[in-house]
Amino acid sequence: MHFTQNGTTIFLLSDPTLELTPLISHTQAKRALRKDSKAFMIYVTEVEKENKTLKVHQQNFLESFNDCFVDDLPPELPPTRPEDHKIEVLTDSQPPHRAPYRQNPLQQ
């Protein structure tokens, strides 16, 4: 397998003389990593070339909402808010233990 990064072609070759490492499950990996074991993981997948052509119904949808999309973004971040634009919270306060709105008793 090979890929290009920063203009350099990188080849990944396997050594058939090495013993195959068994695959482990997610749970086994979590358990091993909790014990401060060192691990190396790699996930290899085949990447297809991106198809940038839009289907007709996608193009029609985008054209119907063309006024909602901007062509370019502003070059700077929005202005910072003044210090009085905040919600004061007490230091040891807890959130309420009930729903913020009434629910159907069957849904509780």
Based on secondary structure, the structural category is alpha+beta
Low-pLDDT runs of 5+ residues are none
Strands ordered across the widest β-sheet = 1-2
How would you sum up the global shape?
extended
Percent helix among the residues? 10-25%
Tally of separate helices: 2
Number of strands: 2
The largest sheet, given as strand count, sense and whether it forms a barrel, is: 2 strands, antiparallel
Calculate Rg over CA atoms.
27 Å
Sequence of secondary-structure elements: EEHH
In whole angstroms, the N-to-C terminal distance is 54 Å
Average predicted confidence as pLDDT? 77
Q: Strand share of the residues? A: 5-15%
Textual characterization of the structure:
By secondary structure, the protein is an alpha+beta fold. It has helices at residues 26-34, 56-64, and strands spanning 2-5, 8-11. A two-stranded antiparallel sheet has the order 1-2. Strand 1 (2-5) and strand 2 form a beta hairpin. The protein is extended, with a radius of gyration of 27 Å.
Q: Keywords, please?
A:
108 residues, alpha+beta, two-stranded antiparallel sheet, 2 helices, 2 strands, 17% helix, extended
Fold blueprint:
Layout: E1 2-5, E2 8-11, H1 26-34, H2 56-64
Antiparallel strand pairs: 1-2
Short précis:
The chain is of the alpha+beta class and 108 residues long. The protein has 2 helices and 2 strands, in the order E-E-H-H.
